[in-house]
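In this section we walk through a basic example: taking a raw amino acid sequence and producing a predicted 3D structure, encoded as discrete structure tokens. The instruction is simple. Fold the sequence below.
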Amino acid sequence: MARKPSALPKIPVKTERVTKRLQFDPNLIKRVEAFCDFYAETVGAKPDWNDAAVALIEHALDGNRDFNKYLAEQNKPAA
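The resulting token sequence is shown next.
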């Protein structure tokens, strides 16, 4: 049975910034903006767009079992 992902990732108030230039599809930008509005209605505080985008990416990566298995294999010490 597949695990249902949490509807709201933890969005940090501030993150340490490392500048990385990304280009987003306009529809994705609208979806993240809508998520910020949804988050504000649900939690009571509207997150910064950048913080929300980072949290959503981290949430997606953390929830991907195959990717996490891959990372664990990559970090395993050589025998």
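Looking at the output, two observations stand out. Residues 48-79 form one domain. The chain has a mean pLDDT of 85. In the next section we compare this with other chains.
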